[in-house]
Amino acid sequence: MAREIKTHTTFSLIDKFKNDTSSLTENEQMLLKYLPHKIQNIIWELHSSMMFPIPYCFSAILTAVSGSIANSKALYANNGYIIYPGLFMAIIGESGENKSHPIKWFMKPLWERAAEILEDYNKELDHYQKETAKGNFDIEKPRKTQFIIQDATIEAIKEILHENPRGIMVIFDELILWINSFSRYKKGNTSEQGEWIVIYEGDDLI
After folding, report:
1. Is the separation of the CB atoms in 170 and 181 below 8 Å?
2. How far apart are CA 62 and CA 185, in angstroms?
3. I need a labelling partner for 106 at 20 to 30 A (CA). Which of 31, 80, 137, 164 fits?
4. CA geometry: angle at 107 spanning 191 and 165, to 5°?
5. Which residues touch 103 (CB under 8 Å, ≥6 apart)?
6. Alpha carbons 11 and 167: distance in angstroms, whole number
7. Dist CA 45 CA 110 (whole Å)
8. DSSP letters spanning 152-197
């Protein structure tokens, strides 16, 4: 017997979205307006079913896209100035406003992909170590590819960027952790703030 499968087409979801926008604020409607319809649908379903705030979803997906593009694309202005899609994003709200869940939801595919890459690297490194132990030094040492990391110092970021010039995404669970990192492991009055500005402008860290 044939089994009935209920599906939502893109058009039906868009129609549903259009009919329900009366419950959204003007700012929320404006944020969704500039996103592709498929992304609108995802955010709307998360907002409707899981109470994810639309501005936080918008911020999270913008961060995920920016970090995924990294230095692979750039905008070249007429004066020779190069603009990379680097983004500093902070989600600020009251306690209990569901700030963390949108970030975790949209970042989950990236963390899963990062775990797969790390697993492949560990296998290649294990093979490399076994071969060199046998005296085979012609084999090339595998490179550790990273594109997303969490709660890292500037020193660690410099090392990772040396191996990953395409760029990386750095995630801090709390904004205060990032701010406190400016002076972490630093002596005297030195600060990492200037180096973060260099990162924001897309210049090389030395």
Report:
1. no
2. 31
3. 164
4. 55
5. 56, 60, 63, 91, 171
6. 37
7. 20
8. --HHHHHHHHHH-TT--EEE-SSHHHHHHTTSTT--TT--SHHHHH
Model pLDDT for residues 125-149, shown as the tens digit of each residue = 999 999 999 999 999 999 999 999 9
The model's pTM: 0.78
Please name the amino acid found at residue 154. Answer: I
What integer pLDDT is reported at residue 7 of this predicted model? 40
Give the Cα separation of 68 and 59 in Å (integer). 14
Token pair listed for 67: 């970090």
Supply the mean pLDDT for the chain: 84
| Beta-bridge partners for 76 | 82
Reported as a single tens digit per residue, the pLDDT across 144-202 is: 999 999 988 888 898 999 899 889 999 988 888 888 877 765 555 556 888 888 887 77
